[in-house]
Amino acid sequence: MTKCALCGYEFEEKELACHSKCPMSEGCAIICCPNCGFQEVDESKSEVAVLIRRTWQAITQWHQPAQEKTR
Fold first, then answer.
1. Under 8 Å CB-to-CB from 17, ≥6 apart: which residues?
2. CB–CB of 32/39 below 8 Å?
3. Per-residue model confidence (pLDDT) at position 9
4. Is 8 left (phi over 0), alpha (psi -120 to 50) or beta?
């Protein structure tokens, strides 16, 4: 079950209206809310989103001990 970040509507991935008409729908990393049309990246399907998340976590973990030392 997926929940829209904009309107809060809960829906199954099968209901994604934008994917049914797109010729590139197989493997697409965009989730479209069938209620309001809001589009967001499905982070579990996007290799770029996974790479950015891992990089961001590594950066924040690397800086965290330096912040604790100043206290």
1. 32, 34
2. yes
3. 94
4. left
Q: What are phi and psi of 12, to 5 degrees?
A: -85, 155
Span 15-61, pLDDT tens digits: 665 655 667 666 677 888 888 989 888 777 777 777 888 898 888 88
What pTM was estimated for this model as a whole? 0.53
What is d(CA 46, CA 11) in angstroms, rounded to the nearest whole number?
20
10: pLDDT strictly greater than 90: yes
Name the residue type at position 53. R
Establish how many alpha carbons lie within 13 A of residue 30's alpha carbon, considering only the half-sphere containing its beta carbon.
Answer: 12
Q: What share of the chain is helix, strand, coil (3-state, %, to 5)?
A: 45, 15, 40
